[in-house]
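ugh ok so i messed up the first submission bc i forgot one of the chains. this is the corrected input, ALL of the components this time, i swear. 917 residues overall. if the numbers dont match what u have on ur side tell me asap before i send this to the collaborators (the ones from the other lab, u know who)
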Amino acid sequence: MPHVDRPALIRRLQSIVGEPYVLHRPDDLLVYEQDAIMVNRHLPDVVVLPDGAEQVAAVVRLAREAGLPVVPRGAGTGLSGGAIPERGGVVVALTRMTRVLELDPEGRTAVVEPGLVNAEFTTMLARWNLFFAPDPGSQVASTIGGNVANNSGGPHCLAYGVTGNHVLGLEVVLADGTVAWVGSRGWDAPGYDLAGVLTGSEGTLGIITKIAVRLLRRREAVRTLLAIYETMDAACAATSAIIATGIVPEALEIIDGVTMRAVNRTLHAGFPEDAEAALLVEVEGVTDAVPAVMERIEALCRAGGARRVQTAASAEERQNLWKGRKHAYGSLGVLARNAIMLDVCAPRSRLVEAMRAVAEAGRRWDVRISNFFHAGDGNLHPNLLFDFEPTDPQFARVVGATEDIMRACVRLGGTITGEHGVGIEKREYLPWLFSADDLAAMRRVKDAFDPQGVLNPDKIFPTGRPVHGAPAPAGGDTA
Amino acid sequence: MSGPPAPRADPTPVAARLESLLGAGAVTTAGCEAWATDGVVPRAVVLPADADQVAAVLRVCDQAGAAVVPWGGGTAMTLGYPPARADVVLRTERLDAIIDHDPSNLTVTVGAGIALRRLQEVLGAHGQWLPLEPPLAERATAGGAVASGLGGPRRLAYGSARDLVIGARAALAQGTVVACGGKTVKNVAGYDLGKLVVGSLGTLGVLTELTFRLIPRPESSRTLAAWASDMAAVAALARRVFDSALTPVAVVGVNAHAAARAGRGAAGLLVRSEGVEPAVRRHERDIGAWAAAVGMETEAFEGEAETALWKVVRDVGWWEDTGVALRASVPPGAAADLAVALARALPEGTAMVVHPGVGTLWLEAPAADAAVLIALLRPLVERAAGHLLLARAPAALKAAHEVWTPGPQARALALMREVKRAFDPRGTLSPGRFVSRL
Ligand SMILES: Cc1cc2nc3c(=O)[nH]c(=O)nc-3n(C[C@H](O)[C@H](O)[C@H](O)COP(=O)(O)OP(=O)(O)OC[C@H]3O[C@@H](n4cnc5c(N)ncnc54)[C@H](O)[C@@H]3O)c2cc1C
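and heres the new structure output, hopefully the right one now
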């Protein structure tokens, strides 16, 4: 630590946020060495849990003075390593800031703090028949601040849009320890759309301390359909057909055979053991219209060769159909000790080819892959399964397969990340999508916000280092 | 604009150098008055043929210290402050290709200069459309609509340019062409720079290419109008609609003066619903019943009549060349009350439409009433935590009144200055035109 010695730093941090809210013992730091990505970790020097923008700003100013990087963190459910303090430094965990500061049910807007857990917010809004549309699979744990920082999606983003479509304004603590309001509590705030750029910036441009969001009214009726297919090709073709017809359902997810069999083992979900894909479709709207739309989707599913189609209207039946999808991530454990989840996208017109490329990469590198994903958005989540540690030489095969899949999606006109973010995991691949000039333009934005590189350094931008380098020596009190 | 000083001016006049770059037909120096922005007349008007030529024009102008004003359909050139300088008008008209329409991905990539009208025709043949409805859409370009960032009536359901642009390419002041985003509806690879150009009035770069997400054309669309004697009744009905599970695509209140433009004589609420026929019927039934219960008369619009009605609503502010346009943006929950308060106080002859779901009010009035209107609106809008935009006014009025009030918070404004400096250090692109005369 260049300018402030460690005991003094801890003391001063304690005087800003209060003693219980500064974590510095190795045991306490351990939880903060990684997010939900399993192949990277690094201990922070210290973790602070501030309450309010003023405290966050004071922490940032002190960290600057101490020459330490600052890494914002929500619930740590990120899947790209965005919250990992790669260079140590100060982790600012926003999890104490969970208030709903303003709520206008009539205008369908609210202002919340970043540590508020997504699902808790939506549960709270049920009284007013409202909901916060972004519904990442992690919503019972992930924070709204994390959702905004990663511009997260979720199954129902197909119809309702990703997090960024619901953010009106933000209060942010900037790298110099000042506080700014960007955007507003309504649409069309004057000036450049800085709230739009901050959304998805993964904690590299500012620490979000308040979020003005728009809310949606709950729909009157919901219908869910599950269609079973012999082949992944057929399920993907059915997805493309539904989108091409001009029906945009609220959700359109695919679960593959490997996942269905794994879910059967953990949940007894009753999926057929020999099918290769299930399509899960949800339609919402006014009671008068939903059945008619669902009938059409059902007809398209059958015409595409579905072996079996089940529909559900009651809440209980619906939950049953969703069970497999909801528990897909949890069932990975029965398949392998370790997994890397990719987040590639392909144009919806190229889904069949993209999923063939996924299967081909698995065969070529001898890596088992399970898939459950947001098919309607063209957002694939191949899970590369392996039973060794990332330090094992065999890990190179896994990396080889991830690179084949990303390259294939880029070639098809897609992208390397649809919702999980670049973080540490995908930064070296950005040049596959962007020219040096394109990246320089992004760098100009980073420099305008954070010229000294205090906030979440090295994330998003290529570093030129190996993708999954050997873990760096740990920080903390023992270091 | 501070920044590195421009290199010593090249003795060859800029126009001559641009001519050797683009060819004689693509540069005009005569009749430039027609290409004035708020009275600031350029010395040359150029028509580059592609993105590389746009970049080359910018490079030359940037080095020569000549200011460039990008120009699409010219429908929104009244937005912003009069530019501090405008040496060269860069018209995007020739960047009009449909580069990649992928119907089954519901996306389209186009040259930024394409006329929206032509684009909608091509998409319409595939049963799709781009739900972008800026004022005077028939004459607007895709790039201009994005750079001006004005939302239209159906923004409530489909979002605005900020939500619809999924990829972009722009030429920067120093002559590089950069891309961001792509053609997938979800994409978080790197910063979302597309957000920066939406509504930036071309002050950060000249858009050359845009990729949009599209939506299918609905199989049914109808609008129910409920007429009332005053705005309070209109606001109450709007509340009833938003308190329900209905999913209208546009909900707009109009005052009697705005309704007169559509040949009607009273204030009213217009509710448009789209989708499958049973959904549209349900909207008509419910809203019709709620209106009848409070004694409001209803009228259904469909087909060409519906299109004509919404065109009137869309273009409030742009009806008369001699008028001024004001836009108030407030938190959506405050819009209906603001409209009711205004309805009683507006000068005679002011047209008003209010979009309660998105918190936008548009007003058009004769220029003579502008000062009164601004004085009336400003405190009301500020009290509602909103913003006022003087969207169209004679240059003399703009000299006397700020265009955006209140401006961004001070620290946010400082960041915007940094962003401008990062992309356009010499202030080549429409200097002085944007918020706080950036
Ligand atoms: C089981 C599971 C399912 C998932 N499903 C989905 C899904 O369906 N869709 C999806 O998009 N993602 C999904 N994710 C990924 C992840 O949950 C999301 O990215 C989520 O939004 C992260 O929120 P968090 O609070 O955990 O953020 P963290 O992981 O703590 O942080 C994420 C990033 O945001 C930054 N950050 C956090 N808070 C702030 C703040 N207040 N200000 C500035 N920067 C901040 C961090 O520095 C980091 O870069 C899933 C993850 C898991 C484990």
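quick check: The first strand of chain A starts at residue 22 and ends at 23. that seems consistent at least. Residues 470-479 of chain A have pLDDT under 50 and may be disordered.
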